[in-house]
Every structure is written in structure tokens, then in C-alpha cells.
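Field notebook, page 383. I keep forgetting to write these up properly, so this time I am using the form the group agreed on. The chain and the ligand, glutamic acid, are recorded exactly as supplied. Prediction of the bound pose follows.
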Amino acid sequence: MAALPMIAAEPNPSDRLKAAARVVLKIGSALLVDQGTGQLRTAWLAALAQDIALLRERGQEVVVVSSGAIALGRRQLGLAPGVLELEQSQAAAAVGQIRLAHAWQQALAAHGFTVAQVLLTLGDTEQRRRYLNGRNTLGTLLKLGAVPVINENDTVATTEIRYGDNDRLAARVAEMASADCLVLLSDVDGLYTADPTKNPDARRLETVTGITPEIEAMAGLPSSAVGSGGMITKIAAARIALGAGCTMAIASGRVEHPLRAIEAGAGCTWFLPARSPRQARKLWIGGTLVAKGTLFVDDGAARALAGGRSLLPAGVTRVEGTFDRGDAVVVRAADGRVLGRGLIAYGDEDARAIAGHRSGEIEALLGFRGRDEMIHRDDLALD
Ligand code: GLU
């Protein structure tokens, strides 16, 4: 058998959960909704809310991606067991989501936290402009102390344009929010080399550092005890997370207080990225995007950028090209030297209108209060 793509395990990878500044937590339907009765597992949710409160008390930010809308709604609508048609799933999601959001709101309000419901579609995470809006909203909610509880907007998502699984959605959310840790809680406790119910040699991988063909083959084993579909989407999520510099864990939610269990060293599989979310984002901006325009900046702005600051409109002397908010642009010094690339917060017309002006004048010039920065430092990759 080929060597497994594992590294000598870190002393304790579970410390990564404790150390993360921003954690995305994905909870599968089977954990939240009792398969027999179709009822919410409120005691389990209350225990999980205690775990979340613990993270928050330590100063960690938490984003929840919660499944369960369809599972909750189908029972309420009296839909027969079995596979639902798309229209039925959409109807069930509409009924279930309101209950799901309410349950989260109650569970987290018990610890004094405000819950914000965010429903996303595939397009919201794939189209740069909407992606940036989502990113800004999540950032604002977290800054204001809320706990975003996210689900796919199943009611409007049709087959071609839906995730259908919250594993990949959660990974996109982690990328969007530049989270440093993503935990997929489900009924499996990790990735196994083979079906553990059939193969006595099957073992759970402790750490994975890259999504190699061997790893994909493990996820795709048709007889896998962990359910092939379920593991395939988890590995797809891991690929997104690792690309975004986000550590990911596949961990069991079958216990009460699953986060405490992880921190106490409960078995799970850790996917360890090669770089930080910040480095990954800069790499993406600097290397993979086609620039649609150019901003020329004055010497003061060039110095501010070199010092790690954002690019303000006041320092921009000329705007070239046609671009939308969220597009990549090249930033050049007065002498034409390339300083870097970044995602611009304004379309080209607005950028021209505010170039050379103080941020306080933006509202008067454009008629709306846009961002103070032309390019925020998090969206800038210097050469
Ligand atoms: N968005 C679906 C729901 O809330 C869940 C998708 C999944 O199970 O991953 O029911």
C-alpha cells in the first residue's frame, strides 16, 4: 500500500480548536433531529450551546452552519419517509428553517448571545461580488458579537445551483470568513483507511495534510461504514478548507459536549493546511485573479501600504480600466512600479469619483456611505 499522506502528528492537533480565533462549526441533520420522532434534540443542542459559550468566553468567534431544516419540516408537513422530490425538499426547508433558527436562538440566548440567521445559495459563495457582500456581513455580525447561524437557502436553490450538502457550504463559509478552524460534527468520527466494520485493520487517520488520490479513494469506498456520499462531501470540504488555510476536523457529534470532547483529545481526523488563512487569501489575490484595472497611488499611500495599511481613496491619483466592486486591480506607484494587487471595494466609476478625496467625503460624492478603504489591507497582496 502506498505511504499514507500523513505527517508526524503534531503533539496535539486538537489544540488548534482552542487556538483558533474564528471557528466555523457545521452540524449535521442527524445530530439535531431525532431520526425516529423527527423532533429536535433540544438537550443535545443545549449542551452544544454550552460548548459554544465556552469558546466565546475565551474570546473566540463562532459561526454555525446548521443543517436540519428539511428534516424538521418534512415531519411537520406530513411528507412520507424516503427520498423527497426537489419541490418537497424546498417546501420542507421553508417550514423547517424557521423552527431551526428559533431553536438556535433559544439555545444561544440562554448564554446571552444574539443569533443572526444567514441563508446562502451557491451563487452567494461563487460570485465574487456577492461573496464579498457575504464576507462583509459576516465580519460585521461577528464584530457586533452575534453568532451567525447559516444554512443553504434551500427554498430557492434548484438542483443545478445548489450545494445540497452543508459540508461544502461550511467550507466555503470558512473560506469566506477567513476562519482558522472548521469542525464538521456528524455521526462519524473521522476518515478511515477502510470500512471499520468489515476490515479489522481499518484505522482512523489522525492527521491529513493534503487531499491525495489515496485520501479520495478512502472517502469513496462504496462499502465505507461512514456512508460514501457523506465522506465524499467531507473530503471536498477539506480540499476547500486546506486551500483557504483553514484547519478542519471531522469529529463525532454523537456525544454530548462534542467540542469539549475534541479539546479533551477525543478521536477525530484533522486536516492540517500548509499556510494560514491570511497567507492563503493573499496568494489567491496575488496569484490567481486576472486584474481588471490599475490604481496609481502617491508616495504617501505607497509608504502606508508598505507599512501594512489599507489603501484609502485620498492616496489614489489615477484609475484605469473597467471593473466592478470586488474585482482584482493592480496597484502601481507614481513611477509605474507594481506595488501589489488587491480586491477593490468600488466599481471603476465610483473609484474615479472618490480618488484623491478623503474617506469622509465618500457619502457626499457617491450618495451612499461606502467603505472607507478603496482596498482593505486584508484584500491586498503586496509584491
Ligand atoms: N440544508 C439542508 C437542511 O437544512 C441540509 C443539507 C445537508 O444535510 O448537508 O436540511
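OBSERVATIONS:
- Residues 29, 67-71, 93, 151-152, 154, 165-166 surround glutamic acid (CB under 6 Å).
- Residues 1-7, 222-229 have pLDDT under 50 and may be disordered.
FOLLOW-UP: compare against the apo run.
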